[in-house]
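As noted in the main text, all predictions were made from sequence alone. Below is one such record, for Major royal jelly protein.
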Amino acid sequence: MFSSLLALWLCSSSAFAQNSSVFDFPEYPPPGTPAPNATLASNVTTLPANEVSNPELAQVKIHVDTGRFGPPIELVHAYFNFWPTGVGVSSDGRIFTCFPRGNETFTLAEVNSSTTEAPFPNEEFNTPEAFINGTNPAFGIATSKLIFVQSVVVDGRDRVWALDTGRPRVNGTILFATVPGGPKLVGFDLSGDSFASITFPADVVFADSSLNDVRFDLRGGGFAYITDSSPQHPGIVVIDLATGTSWRHLDGHPAVSIDSTFVPSYNGVPFFLHPIPAPNAITHLNTFAADGIALSADGEFLYVSPITSRQLWRVPTSVIKVQPSSANPNAIILANQAVQNLGQKGGNSDGLETDSNGFIYLGAPEQNAISRFNPNTGLVEPFIRDPAIQWPDTLSVVSLRDGGNFLYFTSNQLWLGPDYQNGTDLRTKPYAMFRVAIEGGKANQMS
Ligand SMILES: *[C@@H]1O[C@H](CO)[C@@H](O)[C@H](O)[C@H]1NC(C)=O
Ligand SMILES: *[C@@H]1O[C@H](CO)[C@@H](O)[C@H](O)[C@H]1NC(C)=O
Ligand SMILES: *[C@@H]1O[C@H](CO)[C@@H](O)[C@H](O)[C@H]1NC(C)=O
Ligand SMILES: *[C@@H]1O[C@H](CO)[C@@H](O)[C@H](O)[C@H]1NC(C)=O
Ligand SMILES: *[C@@H]1O[C@H](CO)[C@@H](O)[C@H](O)[C@H]1NC(C)=O
Ligand SMILES: *[C@@H]1O[C@H](CO)[C@@H](O)[C@H](O)[C@H]1NC(C)=O
Ligand SMILES: *[C@@H]1O[C@H](CO)[C@@H](O)[C@H](O)[C@H]1NC(C)=O
Ligand SMILES: *[C@@H]1O[C@H](CO)[C@@H](O)[C@H](O)[C@H]1NC(C)=O
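Prediction:
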């Protein structure tokens, strides 16, 4: 019975086999997919305990996980001073980085040797008049200076953009609320001259907003897309770069929100999120929502993933470029309806990044790895894995003028910090920046 049905199915399926979507599946595995043996982090070894406990088994070699696959990672910078998050690299190889501000003396920097960083563009720009609002304690201030740079991105025109959350953590304990004029997106040219400083109205970036990461769509007048990782106000902030006007989309959508059931595992240890006791935080870091974002190589999709979730999402940029207004009263609904759930990706991610081949690189701290989403197949592929990858925070692709395409990334041991370890700092200096060669180049989204 079964075999005759099978025969019938095989026979009838062959009639349309040529055009069935199943049989039309593109070349599989697709080009660029690592061979299965290349992503098997395997070796064999004997177990020392057996040498005494059981001589018969002492020489038996057991399959083990070496923790490594993919092209080798190269250490490009060691941070002995402040704790880093972002990295951006210009085409001439200059490396920009940033430090969430506790009592650090600067928050935006350029790497000036393998082991040191200098304030960028200078110390003065990194020194606000104050951190605490004199009339409004627990709030920050409005200032053109840099308060707390969470992300630094070099765009397709080699311009350096600093995303300032406006929320200092004074003396390492308090994440202050914002006042308008504190949070901002500041653009610098490579000589350090600031050509733009875009601030936000109070109904676009809220007092408890946490601007996290930014990507630039330089087609036409240009747009910037920013994640708001605040648990109270998860969403996407969009800026029209031609006018400086900004608006929000996807407020509270699952694509940008915390999965409260999420329990990741880092270096093999299950990790539970502890609430921080009052009164130390208005928003605590360990409940951050939408974090990494990436723009598809053609600029048509914005990929996003909450840091406390294993889900990957994307939304067409065409719908979020529409500013909600009386002229576009359904803009919010239409944007929410257009969100695509791309399913789980095998782990959570902090940073996301794109290359010109269309890959979306996904930090994979649970695996000490970086994976990549292949939009041609819908699959997440293994890319690199190494025990030295201790929380890949921010990812940044660069095509160097002197040759070479690289994915740079910071490795900052985030989950070992005191915020996440009940006040104890389990991190080990130096924090690291690595790079790995990639096939694709920088995706510039310029035309
Ligand atoms: C399959 O589709 C192609 C176009 O994609 C068409 O040329 C061909 O005739 C189709 N074959 C069948 C069996 O329908
Ligand atoms: C994987 O297998 C192929 C074919 O057997 C071989 O050429 C290649 O060297 C192997 N790669 C690794 C990393 O073992
Ligand atoms: C595999 O194990 C052998 C013996 O323990 C060791 O010499 C070799 O370096 C290991 N190879 C890898 C890729 O870890
Ligand atoms: C790097 O910058 C720091 C801070 O400005 C400075 O103290 C140090 O001398 C610089 N190092 C190099 C190698 O330029
Ligand atoms: C302090 O907060 C008040 C009220 O939000 C605001 O009006 C004022 O501009 C802030 N001060 C500074 C220096 O930004
Ligand atoms: C940080 O703490 C030190 C010592 O406890 C104190 O002197 C300083 O004023 C504090 N800084 C701010 C901005 O509150
Ligand atoms: C302040 O910064 C210094 C230097 O970065 C660091 O050694 C110290 O622990 C910090 N103190 C607090 C309270 O964050
Ligand atoms: C966290 O630390 C506090 C004291 O600082 C202690 O009372 C509490 O038991 C600790 N909690 C856990 C889960 O270790």
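Confidence is low (pLDDT under 50) at residues 1-25, 278-283. The pocket of 2-acetamido-2-deoxy-beta-D-glucopyranose (ligand 2) is lined by residues 35, 37-38 (CB under 6 Å). These features were considered when defining construct boundaries for the mutagenesis experiments described in Section 2.9.
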